[in-house]
Amino acid sequence: MAPRKPSFIRSLLSLHRYIGLSVAIIAIHLSITGILLNHTNDIGIDKNYINSSTVLGWYGISHPASLSGHKLNEHWISQWNDDIYFNKKIIGQSINPLRGATTTEHFFALATSETIWLITIDGDIIEKLNAPGEKLGDIIQLGHQNKFIVIKTEQGLFKADADLVSWQPIEDTGIVWSDMDIVPAQLSDEIFTQGHSISWERVLLDVHSGRIATKAGTFLIDLAGIALIILAISGFTIWFKRRRRQL
Amino acid sequence: MMVRLYLLSLFLLISLANSEASLARGVYQHPDAFLAETFADKVPKAQFIWFTGEVGKTVKSILSHKPASLRTRYWLQDERSVWILEEIGKDKPITVGFIINQGQIERIKVLIFRESRGWEIKRNGFTDQFKDITLEKENRLSKRIDSISGATLSVNAVTKLSRVALYLHSQVLKKDGT
Predict the structure, then answer these.
(1) How much is the ipTM here?
(2) Residue-wise pLDDT tens digits, B49-85
(3) Does residue A28 lie within any of the structural domains?
(4) Are B100 and B108 in contact (CB under 8 A)?
(5) Nearest chain B CA: its distance from A39 CA (Å)
(6) Which terminus of chain A is more exposed, N or C, with fewer CB under 10 A?
């Protein structure tokens, strides 16, 4: 006697069961992460940035063990990526390297190879000046002589007047050059954390979509998505067929 | 064969676009050279105007944001002034030199362009539109500036800066009692 051919409903039920069992964990994962994503603002992870080097490593982001900067009284001027920081506040961008920071009679000053920025003691920019003329060349170092700004360029040493309107060549005497130092670890960590701006919300979103596990993760979530669609259709078909049979 | 041809064209197109963008970025004229050219090597002493009080409020309303610095410098000789101003187009600041003469724009020149797109604003065809423009009611320009397709943000930045330059010129002349 030939074996009985399983009915369509029975086959569909079996498929439904196996698919259901296979995707159960992923469905729970998608539900939990989905619910959390709906409430990122409430739980505060949208503005909470990652400082775990392991998690940052997943995104291919790494930062040096320390950051160099220039100390001005109790403040730090530093550069991370293209951002210029006054303590942990970004005050502007420069693609050119930071050459130094110094104090003058009334304000702070910092220099990149191309520009000089005058800033208040609160870190507000008073003025950004282009390097003083093509003739003087790029700024190599910044310092002060009796609180007047001094720059070292390829053409020599130059001292500015109080308003940085004119520059006079000077001898290397009594100049206090800006020194590089290591930014305190707590501050550099805050700078590195801000510098990449990857929030926990972004991580959760990538966990939800599977992107956190690169292409394999995305592929798995795609498969789960297709499986859930099949599950919904098979579930509906089974219910519909059974209902018709009962009528 | 067709696929290879397509890929080759795509590669050439991307290379061309990139090389054009990188060529467009840079210092077209150093601000000091612009000043020297404007004042025939007799550059007057720089003066400052602070963005405080009414001046600060007006500049903020023209730019639609707080000015990036607390003051800017200018060079004034009789009723002719030069302003070197910066405004972000999309991501990076564009440095533009303005010559204002008796309340009218005499000339503008894009001095430093740092963006990857929108460099077309450096062309004379665009900058010449600003010639003889004055400031009207509510700090509007007396003439409409034609935009450039693909460079809208850069055009907007330069247009705003021209309003700022004209406004600041009027303020320094008022202060100067001219």
Answers:
(1) 0.72
(2) 999 999 999 999 999 999 989 999 999 998 999 999 9
(3) yes
(4) no
(5) 31
(6) N
